[in-house]
Give the backbone structure.
Amino acid sequence: MGKRIQQTRKLRHMTQTQLALDAQISVSHMAQIEQGKRQAGPAVLASIARALSVPVADLQGRPYIEELRKDQLDGLIQPIRESLDIFDLGADPEVAPRGIEELVAHTDRVCGLIRASDLRSAAAELPGLITETTTAAHSTRDRRAWQALAMQYRSSYDLASKLGFLDLASISLDRMGWAAEQASDAVTGAIRQYNRALAYLRAGQYHTGIRIAELARQTAEQADPGVERDAVTGQVHLGIAVLAARNKDTEAADGNLAAAERIAGRTGEVPSLLWLSFGPTNVAVHRASCLIDQALYHDALAVARRVEIPADWPASRAAHHHAEIARAYLWTGRSEASFNRLLQARRLAPQQSRHSPTVRETVAGLLRAQRRLPESMTNYASWIGM
């Protein structure tokens, strides 16, 4: 990452001092980042990207094409793009769709594959499913078909964002919003806005992300009362909390965590409802994440030690949590504990972990911190392409 920042800075004809001033960090901090001696946390990286007028993903080097090829995922992206392009063409006379119940069940299956981190299978099945459901929705005008199509577009977003194709992720969210409108489904519309806010989180545009998340919360209020509305509203509060923490607004982060905790007290654990994994465990996981983003690493680890991941939690969500905690252990100088968390992330969700910027930057930090590297760590670094 340091080399990419340096190369982009030189293309912009900026000195290191100019970039540091524009990114609002010290010159020594900037020098250490460019030299690979220090990590750039998410907020710092976002500031540097804004100063250089480039997307965060460009500085991360995403998508990681060589690793995508090793996982045989690179060739599965174009068919997804093509399936998204036919959204407004009406029913295709050459497509004979299955019944709505089968399409809904297949939609849930693909969502489940992504949560289980079987990205290759999900990416292989998704284009044909979208094509088939597009014809079914246009020909039947059945609300359930539009809802299924919206969730398929959500799966497309999940895949694209995990693999680093952020342009495809943006298109997927647009399609999801369109399908949710066709279904007149406030809950699905709110989930779409929530995911859109997370896209701005990854881009480092926290203020805009918070505004979009607030819109998601307002959209959820239009849904019928019940556990679905509660779960979505609670998850949106968690999203706002993380955005606020990155934006250095501790009061807003704490307030939204408290709101989510109150809702979770009513719902309990709902790990599979709308594939959100909302509940007390997710509140605790997000609390730790917020503390990490505020550089309160010891506090974050204290929270994490009290977290017990439910057996039925999606592997992708659990792996993301382990990667976050690995980052906290790294920053507190506990390299072995950090690497053990990365091993857990890989065991639970190998395809996701290989393409995770958090995993890659944590491994880079571990490599810098260790004078003598154990073989297991060098093998892990080789596995993710470092």
Observations:
- The mean pLDDT is 93.
